[in-house]
What we know:
Blueprint: H1 3-16, H2 30-47, E1 59-61, E2 69-75, H3 77-80, H4 91-103, E3 107-111, H5 122-132, E4 138-142, H6 145-149, H7 154-170, E5 174-178, H8 193-214, E6 218-220, H9 227-232, H10 234-237, H11 247-264, E7 283-286, H12 287-295, E8 300-304, E9 312-313, E10 316-323, H13 331-338, H14 343-346, H15 348-354
Amino acid sequence: MGRARRATRIAQAAAYGGGFGVAGIGALGALGYGVITVEARLARRIVGQPFDGAPDDDGLYGAGLGAPLELLVLGDSTAAGLGADSAMQTAGAFLAGGLSAFAGRQVRLTNVAVVGAESSGLEVQVVNALDAVPHPDAAVILIGANDVTHRIDKAVAVRHLARAVRRLRDAGAEVVVGTCPDLGAVTPVAQPLRLLARRWSRDLAAAQTVAVVEAGGRSVSLGDLLGPEFARSPEEMFAKDRFHPSSAGYARAASAMLPSVCVALGLWEEQSSTTPDWRRGDTVGPVSRTASAAVAAPGTEVSATEVAGAERGPRGRWAIGLRRVRRPVPERTARAGAGGAATGLVGTTAVAAEQVPGS
């Protein structure tokens, strides 16, 4: 079964009840399960959690006239900023600073994320967030890694995420979800667990995307966004536990999500928000296929769209995948683009997304 079909089945199970099975363990024999269990125990021992807690990044960011934009951040330790050097260097802080720069207004950040949270914890977080800010302008959710490491039923995890998105949308918030990162890119995780973790996390990310789009939100594929950077300079991109992002890693993740949040709030008017640019790899298709393609292309935004005036086709909801962030262009290709042949492959959107917000 392909990833697109698995994503559809997981999302359907999430919508109509029932489960799809834990994160793939059932497909393993008893011997394989034993190996995975040992590998997971060793990985936890290597990674550890040498932090007292995440920094408190709540507060006002930027400057400008008018009432501040209200930004909520929900999710797990990544959303909370565990591993950041200071409160000003979390993903939420970078997003708030970037939003303020685009809006010309202050942004009030309210972060209710919980270290160690699974998707099931989003219900309480949404209640807490809306108690504090009844009418938020935008909400960003980063969730999924703990669902994979704790082998939570993917359909159950996706169901909780979809409910959270709908509740936030009902409150008037634009919702952007950073989908489950590719845990196969974390080097302390040994083989064969790393290969399985990659499949589990990518399958969950694709199913999350389907559910988020159906619930009225936008998703951004984080995938192995930090993988190549981790391989080149792990001391810079990852925190001392070799698992959570460092301040530089959070800046990178926030830069991937900032364009989507800006477009959702109407702060970044661009044709590509509704029209795909085929030269840079944008796609339009059934949401399951678009979600599957986005998993393999970190930095891709997926949102609902219409085809010939219709929201749905024979294979479900139509969705557009926008390649807002791509790998750095090799020097030789960049020189060729200077002559005009490859300029369209870079694009102003991708260039802006590579910048660190609030810097």
